[in-house]
Structures are given as C-alpha cells and as structure tokens.
Amino acid sequence: MAGALGTVASRQTGAAATDRIIDSHVHFYDPTRPQGVPWPAPGETALYKPTYPDRYLENVHPSTVDGVVAVEASAWLEDNLWLLRVADDNALVVGVVGNIAPGHPDFRDALERFSKHPLFRGLRINAGILARTLADARMSADLKLLAEKDLALDILLSGPSVFAEAARLSAAVPELRIVLGHLPIDPPRDGAARAKFTDGLRELGRCPKVYAKISSVVHRVAGQVPTDAAFYKPSLDGMWEAFGPDRVIYASNWPVCDLTAPYGTVFRIVRDYLADKDRETAEKYFWKNSQAAYKWRERGARG
Known about the structure:
11 helices; single chain; alpha/beta; 8-stranded parallel β-sheet; TIM Barrel
C-alpha cells in the first residue's frame, strides 16, 4: 500500500499534488447481521445496506485511496471488536477509532482489551457529553487514561456552542490528541454570535494537540449543492487560519457524504481548493497530519 500512486493523486496537477491519500473518516457496518445495527436506521435506505471496504472502493472508483481510518458509530461495546475484525481482513484500513463512552462501567476493561490491537487508534464521543465529562471525575479520568495509552479522541461536533468545552477538555488533559469532526461549521449570521464563533474557533486553534477533521465541506444551499471550490473557500480558509497547515486532516465521512454529493465531488472540491498551495501543505493535509493525530503505522510495519 505504501508508495502506491492512486488515480486520485495522479489526477492532481500543480504544486498541491500528493502521492498519497488517507481518508480519515469512513464508516463500515452491516445491517444484515443477526443483531442488526443501531445506526443507520432502516428508513435511511441510502445508508441501510452492507457497507464494507469493497463498497467504499466501488464508490471511490475511478479514484484510488491508499488507506482509511474507520470510525465506529455504534455504541454497542462488541462492535469495536467487529470493526477490528473487518480491519484485520482489509489492508485498506490503517486505523480504527472505536466507541466506548467515558463513564461506562466497562470502560477501562474494554479500553485495555481493544487497545492491545495495533489498529486501534482512539475513541469517538459526541460533543453533547463534553460538559458532563468535564464535571464528572470518573469520566474525566477515563479520558486521561486514553491519553496515557497514547490514543486519540474524536469529538463529533454538534455546533459552535461546544467549542469552549472542547478547549476546556484540551486544557484539562493537555497530552490528549483531540480530533474535531465534522468541520467546517458555518458561522452564525448575527454579528455578535459570529464574533463569538470566530473567537471560539481561534481558541481551539491555539490548543497544540487539537486537530480539525475537514469532513463536512459540501452542503446544500437552497436545495442545490454548489460544486465550485470557490464557494467553500471562506470556510476552508477559516480552518487553515485557525489550525494551520499541520493540524487539518482530509476526511470524507463516507458513506454519509453520499447523501449530499458523490465521493468524487467531495474530493475534487478540497483538491481544487489546495491547487494554489505548495506540495508539502497538500501532503500534510491528505495524509501526514492524519498519521500525526492517530499515530497509525504502515500495515507492513506492525510489531
């Protein structure tokens, strides 16, 4: 896998070309399992189908991605093991972000168990529990244990209201690598709220171990999906201004992104945005920063 020149990379031109693509946020699951899945719901017909690496590659085609970080959306404890088994069978997966809620009675035992697997690279939580986590000694201690094990924490952002809480967590556990997704978030229109939003984003950017996962770029406007990178430039500029070139990470949020635009469109928009940036910036964004955040290793270099 290392050094493979994918079609995505070979199609790039100019200074922003990169010889590697790591997609740092994809989901794999299978609703046909006997126990089913807690997400997505059966009514979400575009998502509710077996979703494995082969389906991902079919959607990416004719582009090629060199590796992915698989994120577990299920809160069922044993689904972490299911995803690790999927990863074991697919060299495309360079890392797994599990799902164990801090404060869960089995948190420490489960983290000890799953973290022994070399592909297990961190945990995901929803931003909605941040305030409670900061106020609860046991939940905070669980995240300190995550940091002690040199694992990352993904925080699924619910809006700008949680920016301050994410910054507080970083200050409380400064050794913890935090990956914020899904960014960018559109700022409020109101002037005072917009200023507060900008200040909160900059505060997060000043936290040296907080990364921005750029996995929510494309969206609908008045029922249409703009596909010109220039439309998204202000929000993407905000990410680079706040976090700098060393802490922005490429991610698609597949298959959820398919609800808005095909994978190729999602990728092309960020590729075009980077067209006037230097090659090193592109390399950092498309894979090096992901490796720094998750400390994933080459599949042939384990042990």
